Amino acid sequence: QGVAEIAGKTLELARGSLILIQRGESHGFRNTGSDELRILTFYVPPAYDENENELPAGLP
Question: pTM of whole model > 0.90?
Answer without folding.
Answer: no
